Amino acid sequence: FFGNWKMAEEGGKQDMLLYASDNPECWKVSIMLEELKAPYNLAESSSTEEKNDDLEPTLIDCTLKPPFKINQSGAILMYLAEKFGSSLLPSDFQAKMKVIQWVTWQTSKFAPIASHLIHMKRIKHENDSAKVNQIHKEIEEFETQMIELYSDLNKKLDERDYICGDQRGSYSIADIMCYPHASLHWWIGVNISKFENLVRWLRIMRNKPGVKKGVRVPGKSELGSKVPIFADIDSDEKILKTIEEHETKESYFRVDDLKKLFSDK
Predict the structure, then answer these.
(1) Radius of gyration from C-alpha coordinates of the chain
(2) For the chain, which terminal residue's Cβ has fewer other Cβ atoms within 10 angstroms, N or C?
(3) pLDDT tens for residues 196-248?
């Protein structure tokens, strides 16, 4: 992986400083930085004494005096687009508002529902049978909402290559915001094969150089040294098949199952 980032101790003090881990919220910012070809330093998210909060991603613009710190992926992307004068956020007021509309759609609807499903299917453990049944009901409700959101995005992409813009659309921060969670449909546990426009758009996005680099930041999994990063799992048909077969025969494929899969390797 050759992106525009360096570890903090290797980089200059006048670049951007990004606190990030291997998750879709952070990929939004790293993709944006890679698309802008902006030099940035990568810091460990565990360095809470430097970050001073639990939010990630966190971006510190060290090109300013004093340095400017900003949280929340949507705000960070808008900040970077404005700072660098990027066409990823249109200068035309109405076109800009349409992009921001999809940014807020992603942060207020798409990402929260996706994150709830990931938490309940992959992380949450419950042994009490009554609570297990309640969780299954909640999962079904969230899955219904998630499918509706995927459907909304699929409709928007009808005869379009990008979410916003005239005719077939123009690449914007709306696409960058929506891609990370949308690409994790296999981990969210929703089959999107019937959404042809969405599948086509995911393929377009996946092949962009900035996206290819951005989803590999910071380059290591939070689940242990033996577990691949999500970008590698996403491209490994054998692992994806294992997850699918597990859920067909048993139950939800959890984080612990993923760790176990690589524990002996």
Answers:
(1) 19
(2) C
(3) 999 999 999 999 999 999 999 999 998 988 999 999 999 999 999 999 999 88
Question: pTM of this prediction?
Answer: 0.90
**Residue keyed to tokens 């970077």:** 80
Q: Distance between the two ends of the chain, CA-based, in angstroms?
A: 23
Q: Sheet with 40-44: list strands edge to edge.
A: 5-7, 40-44, 16-20, 58-61, 68-71
Residues forming a β-bridge with 6: 41
For residue 55, the model assigns a pLDDT of 74
Which position has the token pair 């990027």? Answer: 86
Which residue intervals of the chain are DSSP H helices? 24-36, 48-51, 73-84, 93-105, 111-118, 129-156, 173-183, 185-188, 196-206, 209-214, 230-234, 237-249, 255-263
Contact 27, 180 (CB under 8 A): yes
Those residues whose C-beta lies under 8 Å from the C-beta of residue 147, and which sit 6 or more positions away, are 190
Neighbouring-strand partners of residue 254:
none
The answer to whether 171 and 88 have CB atoms below 8 angstroms apart is yes
CA 117, 118, 122, 124 torsion: positive or negative? Answer: negative
